[in-house]
Amino acid sequence: MHFMTALEIIISASLLSAAPLIFTALGGVFSERSGVVNIGLEGLMIMGAFISIVFNLTFSHALGAWTPWIAVVVAMLVGGLFALIHAAASISFRADQTVSGVAINFLALGVAMFLIKNIYGKGQTNTISEYFQQVDVPGLSHIPGIGKLFFQGITYPSYIAILIAILVWFILYKTPFGLRLRSVGEHPMAADTMGINVVKMRYFAVFLSGVFGGIGGAVYAQSITLNFSSSTISGQGYMALAAMIFGKWNPLGAMGAALFFGFAQSLSIVGNSIPYLKEIPSVYLLIAPYVLTILALAGFIGRAEAPKADGVPYIKGER
Fold first, then answer.
1. Which of 112, 192, 203, 215 has its CA 20 to 30 A from that of 52?
2. In this record, what's one Pfam family (predicted)?
3. C-alpha of 240 from chain center
4. Can you tell me the distance from the alpha carbon of 37 to that of 90, in angstroms, rounded to the nearest whole number?
5. CA of 231: how far to CAs of 103, 121, 208, 228, in Å?
């Protein structure tokens, strides 16, 4: 196989795998920048994947090619509402945020599998017929050199994820809303004295984490697995959490880390068709993303500084 052909396959698969991680990691950035630790990104992805697949199977005959896009919108809303459970526990009831996030992960999988078995009478759904297909971007795919690398065999959510990451960076660092959100996560008492409603900001940030987690799950299910089962989301939420930390709670850093993890995931997908890689036992390629996640966290978590009030419940009037 020609080197450029192999590179085209790897880049295409990397962007495909990275898009759900980018969306979910951005949700984590919103939540933790406001001061709420969100370990429940895995559960939010599970809910997004579950809702999108069920909606897709139910309405694809009526909505046609628009089905996956509308399913993403539905997953956004459900993911946001589901995240409010974590918000209520962490912000209003001041529960341990890590424990609450883990509970969200278990709750999401339990609810999803219970409903799947009741709706379909088995442990997984049928395969969807309307999904995010890999396409060649008209015009751009014919650019010499980079056209085949970056604009052929790519899904539109992959491009949207990158653009949204840039937009989120702009919102967080160049707008009054972003300044307020970051101030709530750094020094909530100072923000409160300036008239910022800490509780409302944190609730909204956690809601946004659910929205983005729902998008991530919906994109993953409708572009990679094409159905839902207990193993549809198997660690991708934790990878997104690692990407957020690896990226130092910065949207662009999280995007870069997600692209790196997406590349690692792509090796298990396309490894058998790439020279040299196909000689590596497949089990090593399958575990590569998780090993790299551990190494990234072990190597960088000590040097990455979280927002100062991250994980600390805010009690009005107390320092």
1. 203
2. BPD_transp_2
3. 6
4. 9
5. 18, 17, 25, 8
Q: Which residues make beta-bridge pairs with 135? A: 154
The pLDDT value given to residue 259: 94
Residue 4 exposed, middle or buried by CB count within 10 Å (0-12, 13-18, 19+): exposed
Amino acid at 96: D
Instruction: Report the C-alpha gap between 89 and 42 in whole angstroms.
Output: 17
pLDDT of the residue at 272:
67
Find the helix packing angle between 3-33 and 198-220, rounded to 10°: 160
Q: Where are the alpha helices (DSSP H) in the chain?
A: 3-33, 41-63, 67-87, 97-120, 147-150, 156-174, 176-186, 188-193, 198-220, 236-246, 251-270, 282-300
Cα–Cα dist 186/33, whole Å: 8
**Residue 193 φ then ψ, to 5°:** -65, -20
Torsion of CA 300, 303, 307, 309, to 10 degrees: 110
Rounded to whole angstroms, the Cα distance separating 40 from 155 reads: 26
- Gap between the Cα atoms of 248 and 69, Å rounded: 31
Cα–Cα dist 155/278, whole Å:
25
How far apart, in Å, do the first and last CA atoms of the chain sit?
63
Judged against a pLDDT cut of 70, whether residue 132 lies above it is answered with: yes
Q: Is the pTM of this model over 0.85?
A: yes
Q: How is residue 304 written in tokens?
A: 């990455």
Q: How far apart are CA 176 and CA 172, in angstroms?
A: 8
What whole-number distance in Å separates Cα of residue 53 and Cα of residue 45? 12
The pLDDT value given to residue 89: 96
Task: Give the model confidence (pLDDT) of 260-276 as tens digits.
Answer: 999 888 887 776 667 66
**Cβ contact 48:75 at 8 Å:** yes
121's CB contacts (< 8 A; 6+ apart) are none
- What CA–CA distance (Å, rounded) separates 28 from 181? 13
CA gyration radius for the chain?
20
